[in-house]
Amino acid sequence: MNNSKYSAGSTTVLSEFELEHFLPYRLSLLTNTVSQGISMSYREKYDITIIEWRILAVLGRFPGLSASKIVERTAMDKVAVSRAVKTLVEKGLVRRVTDPDDRRRMTLHITDGPGNRVLKAVIPLAQNYEKQLLGALNHEEEKALFKSLEKLQTRAGSLKKVKAAETG
After folding, report:
1. 166 pLDDT exceeds 50?
2. Cα 125 to Cα 33, 40, 106, 132, 153, distances in angstroms
């Protein structure tokens, strides 16, 4: 593609851009690596994907969310959440309940039997992985990490709102 809009000066920009030092790339790489590591402990045994696990974890903490609220809370892709919810319902791990205040809205709940069993089995595996991962940091580094993550999440949310206002 020889479009001057993209090629003018692009060699300089590309040679100065170090992807391995770009924060969004580093965070994405870390997130994917950690998620894949955790999923190795539950994927085959409990037949759930990373997205399905995240949905179960969110519903375990915040029961009765709609799929759209899960999307908001997790920043996961709407289509991926929709597919995963459908699969979780088919597996009997999650059930849909019509919201009595708004009959058009469906809330999601972990099933009493299979859903709760899977969640209770996977949580300790995830916590153990987290403990091992955080073992790379001392107590002060861990506190600083969580404080920094909170600050970055707040700033990212603010920037997202600004961009949405600019484009919408």
Report:
1. yes
2. 16, 10, 30, 11, 26
